[in-house]
Design brief:
By secondary structure, the protein is mainly beta. Helix content is 5%, strand content 48%. The chain is built from 3 helices and 23 strands.
């Protein structure tokens, strides 16, 4: 813990006035955890939030990734360019090496392409209908990651998003493979549970992670509202067959310590690890979400509910022939209910969320065979971000979780921490220097990322960052303490 503070001091030096976003650069994390389930990509802010940049980095990493360009363009943007297929893309060489031995664990060379179009279906009607289509995907070549584990193929093509959206006056409906992000928190969104974690490449920045698009149906309708309410809407999401986070393969750069121990026991013959029990049944194993939002008097307010399988698995155990333990990763269903708010303040935003997850599945402690218990989990976040001077940006998000009855589960009754990001621009805004990270105040350890990026003209980006971890080997961030690494990126956009 003591080694964390020098990095925080460096961060604050960029922002000498404690003044605090640059718009509202969005980053997320499960209560600040860049490796856990509620962390993720740029959140789709509440309708009417004028302070949120509703863009998504083209590499599907969190907004807030200091190296990701906000290159994603939603199909809605195509409405102003009807009947034309707009497209863009980039080429990137991303190379990451462990500091402990200089070995590269990923040398990803990526070609990213995306595009979309829009057209009028019934343009002559008094209630015209507009259809929009968006598509994005990539081709990756990564020999280093493929050599390390079975998580990666040396050459792989991936469809990121592909969806069709239809709009008619106050109604919007989309279907296909898509990202749907909920919440107003900037880095932490406890009810953002629709899209699972990308286990192969979880880290986007020192305080955020990467998510995967899923096949879903997404609809929203603007509701009649009184004069005091500027916008009122109801939003629904349905994922017919829930997609959840996959366990890392053996030897993966991000294989958790707990999973390493299970596999070590399997090699010694003391236990076996069964295949992950993922959701399979259509509709019955689906994810469902409902969100009610309002904008009034400069406040963005929201109420949300979610039901579906838990994204991150818990482990259960049975005895094979009454002798050998068989460990199975499972995804029990859970519910979540949350409230959120966002309020613009001059050049910054005040925001927060509170979520209650009743009967949430948590790993049991002190048992001979792995199993889980159900406990109520309360999660909250309160944050502020602001831009001051010309380009100086500071973002602070305090998070906490509380388990009223924490007996016999591995999680603490109360835990809390802070995510932060601070940056500034130099040399005609071509050079960006910053620090981002998360620190746990309850023994979780910390993760921090000092970074620099340099833009060469309009098309080239050169970036370097160091990802540093510290803490107990059994804790959330400390388990990666021996995996500090440097990341080098060169991107050409077209």
């Amino acid at each position: 813990m003591k080694f964390f503070w020098p990095y925080l001091v460096v961060a604050l030096l960029f922002c000498p006035g404690v003044g605090l976003v640059r718009g509202a650069e969005s980053v997320r994390g499960l209560i600040g955890d860049p490796f856990a389930e509620a962390a993720g990509e740029p959140n789709t802010s509440l309708p009417g939030d004028p302070f949120h940049e509703a863009t998504m980095p083209a590499d599907s990493s969190l907004a807030g990734d200091p190296f990701a360009e906000n290159a994603h363009r939603d199909a809605g943007d195509m409405a102003q360019n009807k009947k034309s297929f707009l497209h863009k893309g980039w080429l990137e060489s991303r190379n990451q090496m462990w500091l402990r031995n200089g070995r590269a664990f990923t040398t990803r060379q990526r070609l990213w392409l995306e595009g979309g179009t829009a057209w009028d279906v019934f343009s002559e009607s008094d209630k015209p209908i507009t259809a929009q289509f968006f598509l994005s995907g990539s081709v990756d070549f990564d020999p280093a990651a493929a050599d390390l584990s079975a998580d990666h193929d040396e050459l792989a093509a991936m469809l990121n998003e592909a969806y069709l959206a239809v709009e008619r006056k106050s109604v919007h409906l989309s279907i296909g493979k898509k990202m749907v992000r909920w919440g107003t928190g900037d880095g932490i969104n406890p009810v953002d549970l629709i899209n699972p974690l990308d286990h192969r490449d979880p880290l986007a920045s020192g305080r955020s992670d990467n998510r995967l698009a899923v096949f879903l149906v997404h609809g929203s309708v603007a509701l009649p509202s009184p004069e005091s309410v500027e916008e009122l809407s109801l939003e629904l999401v349905a994922v017919p067959v829930a997609e959840v986070a996959t366990l890392n393969a053996a030897g993966s750069a991000w294989e958790p310590v707990s999973l390493q121990r299970i596999r070590a026991g399997e090699q010694q013959g003391g236990m076996s690890l069964a295949a992950q029990d993922k959701p399979k049944r259509c509709f019955e194993d689906g994810k469902y979400g409902l969100r009610f939002t309002a904008t009034t008097g400069g406040w963005d307010l929201g109420l949300a509910a979610y039901s579906g399988p838990k994204n991150i698995p818990v482990f259960t155990g049975t005895l094979e022939n009454n002798v050998r333990p068989v460990i199975t990763p499972v995804h029990p269903r859970s519910n979540a209910f949350g409230a959120s708010f966002a309020r613009g303040m001059s050049r910054g935003t005040l925001r927060g969320e509170l979520a209650v997850k009743p009967r949430y599945a948590m790993q049991r402690a002190g048992v001979s065979l792995p199993n889980y218990s159900r406990r109520t989990l309360v999660e909250g976040v309160f944050g502020i971000d602001r831009t001051f001077a010309l380009n100086r940006y500071l973002n602070l998000q305090y998070f906490a979780e509380y388990i009223p009855n924490s007996e016999d589960v591995v999680r603490s009754r109360y835990s809390h921490g802070l995510t932060f990001e601070c940056s500034d621009l130099f040399f005609d805004d071509d050079l960006k220097l910053g620090v981002s990270g998360v620190v746990g105040f309850s023994g979780q350890g910390w993760a921090v990322q000092p970074y620099a990026e340099y833009r060469i003209g309009d098309d080239w980006l050169l970036a370097i960052s160091f990802f540093l971890f510290h803490g107990d080997a059994n804790e959330r961030y400390g388990q990666f303490a021996d995996r500090d690494f440097v990341s080098l990126r060169l991107r050409y956009s077209f």
